[in-house]
Amino acid sequence: MTYTTNGLTLDEVGFIQIAGIKALSAAAKGELDLNRLAREELASRGLDKEGHWVGFERANQIHNVKK
After folding, report:
1. In this structure, what are the phi and psi dihedrals at residue 40, rounded to the nearest 5 degrees?
2. DSSP-H helix ranges across 14-67
3. What is the pLDDT of residue 2?
4. What is the pLDDT of residues 14-63, one digit of tens each?
5. What is the spatial distance between Cα 33 and Cα 27, in angstroms, rounded to a whole number?
6. CA 65/CA 36 separation, integer angstroms
7. Cα–Cα distance measured from residue 33 to residue 10, given in angstroms and rounded to the nearest whole number
8. Which of 12, 27, 46, 49 could make an SS bond with 56 (beta carbons 3.0 to 4.6 A apart)?
9. Whole-angstrom distance, CA of residue 56 vs CA of residue 62
10. b/e map 34-64, b = 16+ CB within 10 Å
11. CA–CA distance, 21 with 30 (Å, rounded to integer)
């Protein structure tokens, strides 16, 4: 199968292959916002949009995530 990865390797996006059918279906139907989920995860790790450590408070501001 060919994926549109925008320069990322299959190893870097391979997690999608093990995602549950329910989550994949919800994302495909627009019921699950994967962009929002990614922003929340980056914020919970204290990272900016480039994956650099900025601290939790700043990351929450960058990603517009409430504590």
Report:
1. -65, -40
2. 21-28, 34-44, 56-62
3. 65
4. 888 899 999 999 999 999 999 999 999 999 999 999 999 999 999 999 99
5. 6
6. 9
7. 22
8. 46
9. 10
10. eeeeebbebbeeebbeeeeebeeeebbeebe
11. 14
